[in-house]
Amino acid sequence: MADLVLHRDFVPDYGRAVAVAPNVRRVTARNRGPLTFTGTNSYIVGSGRVAIVDPGPDDPSHLDALVAATAGETVTHILLTHSHRDHSGAARALADLVGVPVSAAVRRTALPEPGPTLDAESNAAFMPDVILADGAVIASAGWQLEAVATPGHASDHLAFALAGSDFIFSGDHVMAWSSTVVAPPDGSMAAYMASLDRLLARGEDTYLPGHGGVLDDAHRFVAALKAHRREREAAILARVAAGDRTIPAIVASVYAGLDPRLAAGAGMSVLAHLEDLVARGLVATEGAPALASAYRLTGRRSS
Fold first, then answer.
1. Residue 263's domain is classified under what CATH number?
2. Counted domains in the chain
3. Looking at the domain assignment, is residue 181 inside a domain?
4. Which label site among 49, 74, 178, 259 has the fewest CB atoms less than 10 Å from its CB?
5. pLDDT by residue (tens digit) across 89-124?
């Protein structure tokens, strides 16, 4: 965990499009919070004919900022890394304004309304106009993006790789300021870890995340993030072995000194770890793993 160095010094320039990479501008929404950091980043890709990646929350002032930033240009695509409300809330309003469909992956799990009680909650009713599969290519004059399936934080999560560059839009899968909340039922720790491996196998080493600043030397960060998750898993197993049977008890021990505003997110991440541990036969519970379940070790050794 000591090798995971987080970067929280990002200061957004709200309401203004800031150049962050060749052919890429960032506009940050004002929805700052314990799970959204300084707010959601929307990205404008290209010049003249542009794509907007993650229009952000349902906030008229942010929508106005995106419209102002693209004045005189043609928005050809609206893309979502995933359908959580802090990324998709403005998508329909923007689509109506510019007259183009919303393109995204399809959620792989059924969700109850209103989704997890987090400030970046799932949008259970969302359905894209254009469904993007893994490997889909989205292009216009001067730019091309490849959709890269990265489920884990959400089952419909995509990253977008900018062709001919070292940049990939990593959404909420990897961010420099924090580890990512993985909240079942739509979030999956097994899928999240597999998606980290998939990003490590790619060439891009600079990430443009959904919250916070640009992440340089991203492969080193992702390797440390994987180690952090494995340490967290070991700590959870140790607490179950010590007699902690419930998720609140595990959170109190493993996340000592945690900001109370983050307790719900921590509980969901512990659930995601336990869900994975149950599937691997290391932990047992009655019925499907849930926030209110009681957990115990099975005696099987971790490989």
1. 1.10.10
2. 2
3. yes
4. 259
5. 999 999 999 999 999 999 887 765 444 444 446 787
